[in-house]
Amino acid sequence: MNLKTLLRKLTLLGVVLLLPVPGIAEDSELCAPFRDGKVDETLLSSMLSAAKQGHLYRIDDDSSSVGFCVDSQLARIEGKFNEFQGGMALNPVAKTDGQTMVVIKTASVETKSAFIKNMVKGENFFDVEHNPEILFVSKRLDWTSEGTAELKGDLTMRGKTKPVTFHVSLKPIKGANLRQAEKVQVKATANLSRSEFGMTSLTSLISDEVQLCMTAEATKYEEIKPKEGNGKH
């Protein structure tokens, strides 16, 4: 083989290696926020399996909100996060399904007051410099009616992981049946003690009990599959 032919073959090989591989790229993007040891690989495999089977719903961040409320001696403090990702598996057959994962970027917190915003981002509260994420990973979903459930799992914040229960309501947005809908609305609330996560400052001014709240629209994930005949000549 002469040098010219060898160079041509190496060039073609480089082009092939740079081509996107449907499915693989999607899987990588789908689980990227939960890798690097954040979530057990078995749970990630479960979410990928749900995606392939067509019953994984991904949170639409542009039409969803995640926030918190806490009472203080002066006024009720409310905040919201602008950056978050996650999804929920809703099996149309098995009512014991409901694996959910959500990750929130703490530095994206917003409040009505710049002073309050800087305070909650500081080391006494979210400590965003050293704790850039809040992570929730569910353990089980217990249905209490057709459209309501209790979602139980672990919340990790400021390096501490504690059990938490979200009270959830779900309803279809696109589709008459919740378990067949293309898009669903999820509302979830949970109460927690901030001191359990190391937030022990200003207890005489700010309540220890904090309410987490989420109103989300989630769309059924569709795996991108290679077109018929792709790569064939």
Can you walk through the features of this model?
- The protein is α+β, with helices and mostly antiparallel strands and 233 residues long.
- The protein has one domain (19-220): Lipid/polyisoprenoid-binding, YceI-like (Lipocalin, Beta Barrel).
- It is built from four helices and eleven strands; from the N terminus they run αααββββββαβββββ.
- The protein has helices at residues 3-18, 24-31, 41-53, 114-121, and strands at 56-59, 65-72, 76-81, 84-89, 100-105, 109-111, 133-143, 148-157, 160-174, 183-193, 206-220.
- The chain has an eight-stranded antiparallel beta barrel.
- Strand 2 (65-72) and strand 3 form a beta hairpin.
- The radius of gyration is 22 Å and the shape is globular.
* Biggest sheet descriptor: 8 strands, antiparallel, barrel
Total strand segments: 11
Q: How are the strands of the largest sheet arranged?
A: 1-4-5-7-8-9-10-11
Number of distinct helices? 4
CATH class equals Mainly Beta
Poorly predicted ranges: 3-25
Encode the helix/strand succession as letters. HHHEEEEEEHEEEEE
CATH homologous superfamily designation: Lipid/polyisoprenoid-binding, YceI-like
- For the record, the count of structural domains works out to 1
Which structural class matches the secondary elements? Answer: alpha+beta
Jot down its keywords:
alpha+beta, single chain, Lipocalin, 233 residues
Would you kindly provide a brief summary of this structure?
This protein has 233 residues and is an alpha+beta fold. It is built from 4 helices and 11 strands; from the N terminus they run αααββββββαβββββ. The longest helix has 16 residues, at 3-18.
